[in-house]
Specification:
This protein has 16 helices and eleven strands. By secondary structure, it is of the alpha/beta class. The longest helix has 25 residues. The structure holds glutamine.
Length: 487
């Protein structure tokens, strides 16, 4: 097997024994990028100079007998909304095209401290608003399984980079599905951790009550490894939770006998779920049953309100978070003549925000305005509580819930571009999880028409270890995770 095809664990083994150097792993990533990146278009910025320098430093340390973390020398791609000291961070937007942060996001620093080597920054929908990377101001990423299809979004660049072997692992962010849906569409494992599990210091905010950072990896074990690197309380982020971080990798074993699984009825049998995807999930349920999990149907009566609820709360929060990009405090400033400061704000913003971002700012401002706050925003907050209560009730009886991650496999580039509702329906199964603040992961469970399908496992707050456990047992009893796209 070639280096670029390996999982982080496989690479770590060779790095540890010295059979492979960090410099070789980095070289393998850039060789792969040279060969295929013009077709995949996963990266917005590549950082080879810094990467090779770090790799050589790690190799020197290892040669001198230093004990290094297991992740030392593993290539990682970082979504371009994670601040990187001295390296452009665009958030997929013209408004931040020239933004070079003076500091690292906590997750970037933690990966670096663990010896992981950043290969570059990945493409994304502008400000993480989208499900396909088609809202990026710079480029559209191709799905490595079929380059005419989208890789999902908004973390589509991160997903495509890992699926194509350009980086061994990646981080993304997930506000309504942006890690899990691209993981599903690209045949990867993706985790949206519990709200508060991972520090968001240095993450460019979209909707602050929903955003979480998490891993995109080739298999469950790699995802557990990356969770161990990034999780835990951070004094720089007041919303990061002071709860113990379990040993995610050490806890992996394949005995899941006697666990109780709930089939989230509305999210599997509801409208819009492709019948072939549904059948694939039903087979995964059978497989898990054969491993000893007992399943029952669970009603999620408020799930159907998730999408409208999300599309009030997320725009409301984004309208506030994006107010800072005015050409003075942050971001692009117009060169046009202006009459006063408000004219400067307006012209700068109109020139550099894309249409989806502008639409959401307008919607968010509307639902927060004095006359409509109670009717929309406050109502959505109440509905959010009801959605969360569906999960709370379910977790009284079940260890985890299951449904598809995405209602369909990857769709063609352009197919949903003119149909915003169809695009938003791509997140119908993932959005309830963010509204409830719970953890969920997507794990590959089959193919439809040659394209990957992912199943979503959802759990109680801070039960990522239990979800990884179920996913690991399933994965070890199947071979979906060993398939690689033939680019
Ligand atoms: N696709 C959803 C949206 O457009 C979710 C995006 C995300 O999770 N960042 O808002």
């Amino acid at each position: 097997m070639e280096l670029h095809e390996m999982t982080a664990w496989e690479l770590a083994g060779y790095l540890h024994t010295g059979e492979v150097s960090a410099e070789q792993t980095v070289q393998a990533s850039y060789d792969r990028i040279d060969a295929i990146e013009d077709k995949v278009r996963a990266f917005l910025t590549l950082t080879p100079e810094i990467a090779f320098e770090q790799a050589r430093h790690i190799d020197d340390l290892r040669a001198s007998g230093e004990q290094l973390p297991v992740t030392a020398g593993i290539p990682i791609a970082q979504k371009d909304l994670l601040c990187t000291d001295g390296i452009p961070t665009t958030c997929g937007s013209k408004i931040l095209e020239n933004f070079v942060p003076p500091y690292n996001a906590t997750v970037i620093q933690r990966c670096r401290d663990a010896g992981m080597i950043m290969i570059g920054k990945t493409n994304m929908d502008e400000f993480a608003m989208g499900s396909s990377t088609e809202n990026s101001a710079f480029q559209i990423t191709g799905n490595p399984w079929d380059l005419d299809c989208v890789p999902g979004g908004s973390s589509g660049g991160s997903a495509a980079a890992v699926a194509a072997g350009e980086a061994t692992t990646a981080l993304g962010s997930d506000t309504g599905g942006s890690i899990r849906q691209p993981a599903s569409l690209c045949g990867l494992v993706g985790i949206k951790p519990t709200y508060g599990r991972v520090s968001r210091y240095g993450l460019i905010a979209y909707a602050s009550s929903l955003d979480q950072i998490g891993p995109l990896c080739k298999d469950v074990r790699d995802a557990a490894l990356l969770m161990s690197v990034i999780s835990g309380r951070d004094s720089m982020d007041a919303t990061s939770a002071d709860v113990p971080v379990p040993d995610f990798t050490g806890a992996l074993h394949t005995d899941i006998k006697g666990l109780k699984g709930g089939i989230a009825h509305e999210l599997l049998y509801g409208e819009g779920i492709d019948p072939a995807v549904r059948e694939t999930i039903e087979r995964a349920v059978e497989q898990l049953s054969s491993l000893g999990v007992e399943f029952e149907d669970v009603a999620m009566p408020h799930a159907e309100y998730s999408l409208p609820c999300y599309y009030i709360i997320a725009p409301a929060e984004c309208s506030s978070n994006l107010a800072r990009y005015d050409g003075v405090r942050y971001g692009h400033r117009t060169d046009e003549p202006t009459t006063d400061i408000y004219d400067l704000f307006a012209k700068s913003r109109a020139e550099a925000f894309g249409p989806e971002v502008r639409l959401r700012i307008i919607k968010g401002t509307y639902v927060l305005s004095a006359g409509y706050y109670d009717a929309y925003y406050l109502k959505a907050l109440k509905v959010r509580t009801l959605i969360k209560s569906d999960f709370d009730k379910a977790f009284e009886n079940y260890d985890f819930l299951i449904c598809p991650t995405s209602p369909t496999v990857a769709f063609k580039i352009g197919e949903k571009a003119d149909d915003p509702l169809a695009m938003k329906l791509a997140d119908i199964c993932t959005i309830p999880v963010n509204l409830a603040g719970i953890p969920a992961l997507s794990v590959p469970c089959g193919f439809v028409d040659g394209l990957p399908v992912g199943m979503q496992l959802m759990g109680k707050p801070f039960s990522e270890d239990a979800l990884l456990q179920v996913a690991y047992a399933y994965e070890q009893s199947t071979d979906w995770h060993t398939r690689r796209p033939s680019l």
